[in-house]
Design brief:
mainly alpha; 12 helices
Length: 321
């Protein structure tokens, strides 16, 4: 009588040798891999971090320090406390420059945002041609200096092709960049022409994230294109639009090169934006302490506007479920 063994038969491969068991991962191995990933990440981050420290953080801290000093590059910086800020508050040119800058920002942001949103919606609803998107982006590939010079030649009162066309149509020539009334709107529209394509593509990317099912359901319910735009497109595009507005507002307050190559702050300080006034104070009159104080004031203004925009537009929230 044979007694059956209670242990299950062993399963051996054809070769007769047992399959090697995988070695369990130890905590030490996982920690070592984590440290290796951390070192690799540090290698990739190091160039950007170095650039941030050298070209952004250190100049910012240095500028804040210089704003409390009198400094002209020729002599050591002398601590003067809040004198530069008191002078700034009582400086009528500073406030006039701030007013000119705000006027520029309002025109630039208003026209650019509406135009970019219209272009983005048309790109999404009518065509998604990559070639057309490239054409829209073309002006952005041109530097501000080149764009300013090109439009300076086009809009020249006597020889510009723009005024030649206006004159041929029987109208009076318009001093776009030589008249106090026309100068700031003209500079704003030049920068709109250059940046609107880039802004439109950012908004177009946001539109791509909106599900088409919502538009199809709205069409079934009989909604018009206009109604879908206000009830679907705008609410769901809000986070992207908020971020784009924050970026464009910050960039608009920093306008400088277009003014420098077209009007140089004229005529009669009509285009003397804050960045150009800061540049003139620092490198024209060597008042680096005062220029730094105005730069710090601009930094505070932009920080406050950014926080206010972020909260009012609820940029960190989305209506997409």
């Amino acid at each position: 009588m044979t007694i059956a063994s209670s242990s299950p038969p062993s399963r051996l491969p054809a070769g007769g040798a047992a399959e090697p068991r995988s070695k369990p991962r130890t905590r030490r191995t996982e920690v070592g891999e984590t440290r290796g990933d951390g070192r690799l990440a540090a290698v990739f981050i190091a160039p950007a971090l170095l650039g941030f420290l050298v070209f952004l953080l250190w100049p910012t801290l240095r500028g804040i320090y210089l704003s409390f000093t009198r400094f002209n590059l020729l002599t050591p910086a002398k601590w003067v406390g809040l004198d530069n800020y008191v002078r700034m508050v009582n400086d009528p040119i500073f406030w006039d420059s701030m007013k000119v800058t705000v006027a520029y920002v309002v025109i630039n942001i208003g026209v650019q945002t509406v135009s970019a949103l219209a272009i983005a919606v048309l790109l999404q609803r009518l065509t998604q041609s990559a070639m057309l998107r490239g054409i829209v982006l073309t002006p952005y590939l041109m530097s501000n200096v080149v764009a300013g010079l090109v439009w300076l030649w086009i809009l020249d009162t006597q020889l510009g092709i723009g005024n030649e066309i206006i004159s041929a149509l029987g109208a009076d020539r318009i001093p776009f960049l030589a008249d106090e009334t026309w100068a700031i709107p003209t500079i704003a529209l030049i920068n709109v022409w250059r940046h609107v394509g880039y802004t439109a593509l950012l908004l177009f990317a946001g539109l791509q994230a909106i599900p088409n099912d919502m538009y199809e359901a709205a069409r079934v319910d009989g909604a018009s294109e206009w109604r879908m735009f206000w009830r679907i497109t705008m609410p769901l595009l809000r986070p992207v639009l908020a971020v784009v507005l924050i970026m464009t507002v910050i960039g608009s307050f920093q306008v400088f090169d277009t003014v420098a190559v077209t009007t140089a702050g004229g005529p009669a300080n009509a285009t003397n934006v804050l960045q150009y006034y800061i540049y003139g104070s620092a490198f024209g009159r060597f008042q680096f302490g005062y220029a730094s104080a105005m730069s710090v004031a601009l930094l505070v203004v932009l920080s406050a506007i950014t926080v206010l925009q972020y909260r009012l537009t609820r940029a960190g929230r989305t209506d997409l479920g």
